[in-house]
Write a structure and sequence with these properties.
This protein is α/β, with parallel strands linked by helices. It has a single domain, classed as Rossmann fold. Helix content is 40%, strand content 8%. It is built from 7 helices and 4 strands, in the order αβαβααβαβαα. A 4-stranded parallel beta sheet has the order 2-1-3-4, with helices on both faces. Helix 2 links the parallel strand 1 and strand 2. Helix 2 packs across helix 6 (177-186) and helix 2 (46-62) packs across helix 7 (216-239). The N and C termini lie far apart (44 Å). Bound molecules: zinc ion (ZN). Zinc ion (ZN) binds next to helix 2. Residues 38, 46-47, 132, 174, 179 line the site of zinc ion.
């Protein structure tokens, strides 16, 4: 690691460096995801690790501190049946063990407690980036952010990375071209394209066939673009922070 790259991961910081970093840029990045199958070519932690890598890059370039990735996410309460393969509506969706989902209400409560602790630590902006995209997860993060801001001046920006698509397209897929490319750029040793499709079955199970179009070059372009979008918007939110005004009153 080059010396000029600042340490931005909260768990690696010492008190002195933490105080300096918060004073310079009180933006906290909160990478979210779950443990979930992403084909045979990506690890279970893909979603939260992808979000963490994007947040680290944003903080390195634009300031702020990054929480450890949260690998507990939701797929809605129906996931209880879904993952056990009991849902006759989704016979092809039977998941073998390894994916984990918690109730969305539990996730919202957890996030509310996390926001409170982050605010107490001195942060004024929270970027809650979920690398796990189902509507239930995105809505839970959004709901928690909206609820928290009702009586707090802290600005919580809840999003998933395709929402910052602009000059560079950032698509949403499941272990397809976009997720695989981003992950490949961030964790080159953890992408096993020789397992795509699954050599045991010849099938693209729990992943999109577009994974074959992915590349680390595309991933690097997306990572830098998303990192800049995150950092710049966080800066705008910080500039608009007013300790007297709870966000929910606007
Ligand atoms: Zn994913």
């Amino acid at each position: 690691m080059p010396n000029e790259t600042p340490e931005v991961r909260w768990e690696y910081l010492f008190p002195k460096e933490f105080e300096v970093a918060v004073a310079q840029c009180p933006v906290c990045y909160m990478p979210l995801g779950t443990l979930e199958r992403h084909g045979a070519h990506l690890p279970f932690g893909q979603d939260a690790m992808k979000a963490h890598g994007l947040c680290v890059r944003a903080a390195q370039k634009h300031g702020g501190i990054v929480l450890p990735p949260l690998h507990w996410g939701t797929h809605g309460w129906w996931a209880e049946d879904y993952r056990r393969g009991d849902d006759s509506e989704w016979p092809a969706a039977k998941q073998p063990p390894g994916s984990v989902y918690i109730h969305e209400g539990l996730l919202i409560n957890l996030l509310l407690s996390m926001f409170r602790e982050v605010e107490y630590a001195g942060f004024k902006v929270i970027v809650a980036l979920t690398g796990h995209y189902p509507g239930q997860q995105a809505q839970a993060v959004n709901n928690a952010a909206t609820q928290y801001m009702c009586d707090s001046p802290v600005k919580v920006w809840a999003l998933y990375e395709p929402e910052v698509s602009g000059e560079v397209e950032v698509g949403a897929d499941h272990a397809g071209k976009w997720e695989t490319s981003i992950f490949w750029a961030l964790y080159p040793d953890l992408v096993k394209m020789d397992r795509c499709p699954d050599p045991d079955t010849g099938l693209f199970t729990w992943c999109d066939e577009t994974a074959l179009e992915s590349s680390p070059e595309l991933g690097r372009e997306v990572v830098e673009y998303v990192a800049d979008q995150l950092g710049q918007e966080a800066g705008r939110l910080l500039a608009a922070y007013d300790p007297q005004v709870a966000q929910g009153t606007k």
